[in-house]
Recover the amino acids of this structure.
């Protein structure tokens, strides 16, 4: 919707932010200074006891020093009411007594259509509720009696019944003058493929109305009364009102309950939500027939910073919990996480409350586990780690999982927690349990070996370009030699095309040269090829061949020796890959797992060292270039292993 210039400024000017926010918070009058428009309260966006939420009435902005929520009146209404921009403007405009500007005709038509659909859904809610009280609803009432759902509970959740007939709701709504298109668009009926009248979507089912955060009926969930029905639970289809991946059952009441300090609980189904709410756990929601989605997680975090996922204690419930972890990991932020409360095997929340009471449920909620514990359980349960290779496989799996966490601080803390759990698993010290691998003390050789002083660098090594240029300089020179060799021998480009595309280039101008090489690949004439490269990347080309280390290299000087050039490119690519692989392996070991220490890390670093040594042994021998530092590099890497680089420093 397009608003006229100045409309929002006038709206903000007419409203007091403290009045808008005051509907949702209780001001701390000891800390607030009303005369200066300075207000403080416990934050409505996360649970806290102290008043860290600040409203500056004069500037019209709020900020929480705890969760860092910030914004103006519009953003506050959008977040707390879970509405879109236009709806937030409408809410504030009504409060300020300002008429909304005329909408775009198409937008107005769409909004009017949604309003009509909501009205049709409300008529369906009343129809189903009435049917539950008729003779046709006797079996459904008996079922609800067996589930010990009181009349007050049925009324509170507006539970109804869809009779067995094919067109009961259709005929009722058509008799009320509702258009056929509206009934179909609301998902209450389906068109017949046999040329007959449309038929009701829900038949012989107990009906649970699904309302959005503002309390508008948007869909239904229906439980089959026939035990042989293919679908025990059936939701409304996707409609202009309903997106099941972005909706929660009992959203509005749960948000209100969480605002009063209750723990936000996420259960599996309608009856679990109803049983929990009836037992006093009013801040309870459920996803709608699918695994929890990213959008639903964001909705949950808008309600509370740490919802508790309460799932059935069977295998399916545990699998569902594990799926939630994979969805949640990339979305984690400081203050936003999940805890997990797994029911005793064979029981769901409804069963537990019916058999053991609300106190038993509260006890389980109090013992809810942080997500990192369930993640560790998933990675280790039922597995045996009796060899370095198996423990290395565990490390690899954990590293891949923790990489999903975007926030580096949270990833670090997960690594630290997993390290503690890992020490518990491998380092208990009792009989049969393996202690963490401990390398020999720094500066000493292997047990029983004679200690040797550090080797003194040879004069040739100290004077080499690689030694004086440093690691990054050495890598840039290797890149330069690869590019210069390919430019000199264009017939080789096709052979190394894929590796050249994947190569991570750090040298200045090297990316431009690669682009030019790949662009003109196919021209095997060295003179023409070099002219084309000069046209695309002239300055970079001049710089490349001005390097003494490059223009004096045998594969560049010997333009007719294609085999020498091929060997040079292949070996330099292998060296770069080995060197960078070592660095990444160390980074992964040190950072991603926050300091996990065991034989597996040592084994990985050792494998990387061997890869580097293999690359060094296969170098060119005729020029002596790019190889004089291999012994120093191998010793450097071994010193990292000996020095326990993966152990977290205090």
């Amino acid at each position: 919707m397009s608003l006229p210039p100045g409309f929002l400024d006038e709206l903000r000017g007419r409203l007091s932010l403290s009045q808008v926010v005051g509907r949702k918070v209780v001001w701390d009058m000891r800390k607030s200074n009303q005369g200066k428009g300075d207000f403080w309260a416990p934050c409505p966006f996360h649970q806290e006891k102290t008043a860290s939420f600040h409203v500056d009435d004069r500037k019209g902005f709020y900020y929480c020093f705890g969760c860092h929520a910030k914004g103006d009146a519009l953003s506050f209404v959008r977040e707390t009411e879970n509405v879109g921009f236009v709806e937030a403007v409408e809410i504030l405009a009504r409060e300020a007594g300002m008429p909304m500007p005329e909408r775009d005709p198409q937008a107005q038509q769409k909004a009017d259509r949604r309003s009509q659909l909501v009205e049709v859904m409300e008529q369906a809610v009343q129809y189903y509720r009435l049917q539950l009280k008729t003779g046709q609803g006797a079996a459904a009432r008996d079922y609800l009696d067996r589930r010990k759902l009181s009349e007050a509970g049925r009324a509170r959740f507006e539970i109804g019944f869809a009779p067995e007939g094919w067109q009961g709701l259709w005929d009722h709504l058509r008799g009320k003058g509702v258009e056929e298109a509206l009934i179909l668009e609301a998902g209450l009926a389906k068109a017949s493929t046999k040329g007959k009248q449309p038929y009701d979507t829900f038949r012989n089912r107990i009906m649970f109305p699904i309302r959005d955060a503002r309390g508008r009926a948007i869909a239904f969930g229906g439980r089959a009364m026939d035990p042989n029905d293919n679908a025990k639970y059936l939701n409304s289809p996707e409609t202009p009102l309903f997106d099941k991946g972005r909706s929660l059952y009992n959203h509005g009441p749960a948000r209100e309950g969480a605002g009063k300090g209750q723990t936000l609980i996420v259960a599996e189904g309608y009856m679990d939500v109803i049983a929990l709410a009836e037992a006093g756990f009013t801040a309870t929601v459920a996803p709608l027939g699918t695994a929890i989605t990213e959008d639903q997680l964001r909705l949950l975090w808008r309600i509370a910073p740490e919802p508790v996922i309460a799932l059935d204690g069977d295998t399916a419930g545990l699998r569902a919990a594990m799926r939630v972890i994979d969805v949640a990991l990339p979305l984690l932020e400081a203050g936003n996480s999940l805890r997990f409360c797994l029911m005793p095997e064979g029981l769901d929340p409804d069963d537990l409350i019916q058999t053991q009471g609300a106190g038993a449920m509260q006890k389980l909620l109090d013992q809810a586990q942080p997500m990192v514990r369930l993640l560790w359980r998933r990675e280790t349960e039922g597995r045996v780690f009796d060899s370095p290779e198996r423990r290395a496989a565990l490390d690899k799996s954990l590293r891949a999982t923790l990489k999903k966490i975007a926030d580096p601080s949270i990833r670090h803390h997960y690594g630290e927690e997993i390290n503690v759990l890992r020490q518990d698993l491998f380092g208990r010290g009792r009989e049969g349990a393996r202690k963490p691998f401990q390398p020999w003390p720094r500066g000493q050789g292997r047990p029983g070996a004679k200690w040797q002083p550090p080797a003194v660098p040879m004069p040739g090594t100290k004077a080499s370009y690689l030694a004086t240029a440093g690691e990054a300089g050495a890598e840039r020179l290797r890149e330069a030699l690869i590019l210069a060799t390919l430019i000199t021998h264009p017939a080789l480009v096709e052979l190394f095309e894929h590796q050249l595309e994947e190569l991570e280039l750090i040298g200045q101008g090297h990316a431009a040269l690669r682009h030019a090489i790949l662009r003109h690949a196919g021209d095997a004439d060295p003179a023409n090829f070099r002219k084309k490269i000069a046209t695309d990347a002239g300055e970079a080309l001049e710089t490349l061949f001005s390097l003494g280390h490059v223009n004096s290299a045998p594969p560049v000087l010997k333009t007719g020796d294609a085999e020498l050039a091929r060997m040079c490119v292949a070996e330099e690519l292998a060296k770069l890959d080995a060197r960078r692989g070592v660095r990444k392996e160390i980074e992964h070991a040190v950072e991603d797992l926050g300091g996990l220490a065991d034989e597996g890390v040592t084994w990985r670093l050792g494998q990387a060292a061997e890869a580097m040594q293999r690359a060094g042994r296969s170098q060119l021998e005729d020029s002596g270039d790019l190889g004089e530092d291999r012994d120093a590099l191998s010793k450097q890497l071994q010193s990292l292993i000996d020095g326990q680089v993966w152990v977290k420093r205090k």
Notes: Residues 428-468, 592-601, 615-630, 645-650 have pLDDT under 50 and may be disordered. Residues 136 and 163 are 6 Å apart (CA to CA). The two ends are 57 Å apart (CA to CA). The longest strand covers residues 217-224.
